[in-house]
Structure formats: C-alpha cells, structure tokens
Amino acid sequence: MVRRMSLIYFRHGRRDQMKVALTFDDGPNPPRTDQVIEILNSRGARGTFFVLGKWVERWPEAFMRIIEGGHAVGNHSYLHQAHLGDFDRAEAAIGNLLGRPTQFLRAHYFNFFTCLYSPVALAPAMKIVDADVNPADYAKTDPEAIVAATLHDPALAGGSIIDLHDSAESDDDALRLARPLSMIEALPAIVDGLQARGFELVGLDEMELVDPVEWRPDGRGAFASAAVRSMIENLGG
C-alpha cells in the first residue's frame, strides 16, 4: 500500500491582528536587495526575503546584510527551475551562513509539487508559505501600477502576505538588475500606504500563520519525472 501524505501551506496570518508581511523573492541581488533594505529600515519595517541558494553562494555578503539588517529569510530553492525541488541544496547554502535551519519555504512559481523532492520542505518544522496579495510586480514596469495592485488588492487585510521580487532567477545580469527597479521605486509608497492604514510591517517570524491549505494536485506537475508524478497521484486523501 502506498503511504498517503498531505502537503500543507499557508496564505496568510491571523486576520484579527494588524500585521502585514512584505516578502521578496529571488535574491540576494546586490545592490538591489540593499536598496530594499534601506527603504524598509528607514521606515521601521521588516521584510522576509525568500532567497535562492545559487545567489546566496555567489553573494554571501549580500545575504548577511539581510540578516544584519534585522530581516527574516526563507528558502526559495537553489536554481529556481520549474520542475526541480532542490530545496535541500538551497538549505545547505543558506544554513551554512545563517547557522541554523530556515523556518519558511516558498515553492518557486508556486509549484508546490516540487516540495515532494525535499525532506527539508516536508519537515514538520518547516512552514511552506504562499501569499494572498500578489501584485505581479515582476511583470510591471510602471511603479504606480505596482503600488495600486498592492494597496487596492481586495484581499489586503490584517495577516496578509504580499509577494514582491527584489531579483530574478535569470543568469542574465542585466535582467536580474533591471527587473526589480520598478518595484523598488514603488516600495516607499507601498510601505507608507500600508503604515498609514495602521498596518505593522513584520517578518514572517512575527506572524502567526493560520488556516493551512492542503494542496491538491493540479496540472503543474505534468512534466515532472515519473517518480514524482506517482507521488503527486498519491498525495492527500
């Protein structure tokens, strides 16, 4: 008999608390990540950075500046390849500098089935984190559009987790440096707008995540390996 398992993730924290988590994917990315940290710190805000293992190894000093700036970090895979769940490899790179395991993990492209590759992702202490506010900043070049998509998202409320990007997974240096520019230009207005509404901008380590969602297989695993497709078919239930 095949053992069934469930894959649980979180989209938000407690709705009765005026806390919001700004999260940033795909870094570290000097100097763009440093610009984000400067904006956050100047406004007394904390963020959570979901980092790629390959960039942590390439720019360990930039990663450590996230930590030294008082922000939280999470595991966002090593290579950011759509059907590769290389979270264990990323965890080795991150933990080597952090000195402890990460508490949070975000599946790249929100392809949750990739977590099936990884004992790290499935560990009981790991919290897999989605987001309930996703302004798709990576696809926008107008900072005002990013601000509007964030502050006017109908899901925005106490406990919201907002998904932004301070880098890119691409090895094209020009693209990696250029893509976050519009988000960085928008970020002061986003932070100011959230704080004006009374939200406290916290790291995920300050937020009680609630209402876990049990992931159900979807079409995104269609091109995974045969072994992983078999695992997907036996997931849940």
Overview of the structural elements:
By secondary structure, the chain is of the alpha/beta class. The chain has one domain (8-233): TIM Barrel, CATH 3.20.20.370. It contains 9 helices and 11 strands. It has helices at residues 32-42, 53-58, 60-68, 87-98, 119-122, 143-151, 173-178, 181-196, 226-233; strands at residues 8-9, 12-13, 19-27, 47-51, 72-75, 104-105, 127-128, 161-165, 200-201, 209-210, 213-214. The strands form 4 sheets. Strands 3, 4, 5, 8 and 9 form a 5-stranded parallel β-sheet that branches. A two-stranded antiparallel sheet has the order 1-11. α5 links the parallel β6 (104-105) and β7 (127-128). The chain is globular. The two termini are 14 Å apart.
Question: Keywords, please?
Answer:
16% strand; five-stranded parallel sheet; alpha/beta; two-stranded antiparallel ribbon; single chain; 237 residues; TIM Barrel
